[in-house]
Amino acid sequence: MDKLKLITSTTRKGRKGIAFANWMQEFATKEGSFDIELLDLAEINLPLLDEPNHPMQGQYEHEYTKEWSRKIHEADAFIFVLGEYNYGYPAPIKNAIDYLHHEWKYKPVGFLSYGGISAGLRSTQMMKQVVTTLSMMPIPKQVNLPFGFKKVDEHGIFHPDEQIENAALTMLQELKKWSHAMKVLRNDTTTNSRE
Questions:
Q1: Domain residue spans in the chain?
Q2: pTM tops 0.85
Q3: What does the pLDDT look like over 50-74, one tens digit per residue?
Q4: Angle made by CA atoms 124, 26, 182, in degrees to the nearest 5
Q5: Which of 20, 62, 65, 102 is buried most, with the most CB atoms less than 10 Å from its CB?
Q6: Low-confidence ranges of the chain (pLDDT < 50)
Q7: Cα–Cα distance between 20 and 159 in angstroms, integer?
Q8: Cα dist from 136 to 16, 65, 99, 165, 178, whole Å
Q9: Nearest 10 degrees: CA dihedral of 62, 68, 69, 70?
Q10: Are strands 143-146 and 137-138 parallel, antiparallel or unpaired?
Q11: What is the CATH number of domain 3-187?
């Protein structure tokens, strides 16, 4: 079964993104197309990029970078649970991406974005430029949550409506197709060479 990594984008106390990520993990697990793992950047707590070598070299000195590399390398697909800060993506997700290079290649990525009336779409559009530079495929189908925080209860549980669930199901189905289609690229040692 293909491995799907859900990655949060914010780390601040009081964030709502973790509620959306927890729901997406549960929903995707029930859907059953992927082996799911949630990677919460608040728990992983990567420092601001501090590796002395360029990520393209894959020569990591710090154990936390090596562990991050292992997690991303083993993935076949991703969902970024993406907030929006000042019309752009949050710094923690950009930092987490910039730690690595080859590990991201030839993998599809879906977006569950959230924010105010724009539902994080400006953040998503900016992030698409980043991921395509890393030879990732941002799939067209995504989940957008305008004022999603209004559907998070006092216990931090997100309660989606049927429209949101349908969007999530469509995104997962598309991710599965793209993951299978791109597998030939991920398995091609000539395209994944670090030389």
A1: 3-187
A2: yes
A3: 999 999 999 999 999 999 999 999 9
A4: 55
A5: 20
A6: 194-195
A7: 9
A8: 26, 20, 15, 25, 11
A9: 110
A10: unpaired
A11: 3.40.50.360
